[in-house]
From TrEMBL:
SUPFAM superfamilies: PRTase-like. PANTHER family: OROTATE PHOSPHORIBOSYLTRANSFERASE (PTHR19278), URIDINE 5'-MONOPHOSPHATE SYNTHASE (PTHR19278:SF9). InterPro entries: OPRT, Orotate_PRibTrfase_bac, PRTase-like, PRTase_dom. Pathway: Pyrimidine metabolism; UMP biosynthesis via de novo pathway; UMP from orotate: step 1/2. It is an enzyme of class 2 (transferase). One of its GO terms (molecular function) is orotate phosphoribosyltransferase activity. This is Orotate phosphoribosyltransferase. It comes from the Bacteria.
Amino acid sequence: MDVLELYRRTGALLEGHFLLRSGLHSPIFLQSAALLQHPLYAEAVGEALGKLFEDEKVDFVIGPALGGVILSFVVARALGARALFAEKDGQGGMTLRRGLTVNPGDRFLAVEDVVTTGESVRKAIRAAEARGGVLV
């Protein structure tokens, strides 16, 4: 299933003028939560993204909370990998909590529902790398 068509079908592809939290401007905004609330569509997105990395031997997929949680799960499911999420650590970074673990040398993929500057997903990547994960 075409991912862009799913965004359109669910009303998650918005067009106009948007001032993003980063301060950047965009003529298009993907309201991914509007799409990801539909489990079958979320699964289709996960499968489409997973297919891009099926030869990478991914051990886990990580995303920043809150937006990357569902996406990390559906991509991990498609890859047969674990799904992790990073949370704010209260000091400007992100960390893993709730029993989520990384084994040294684990290969991982990082995902996010909406990326403008990439700062949140970079923090999630750093949290995984700090525990020995290797970004694919």
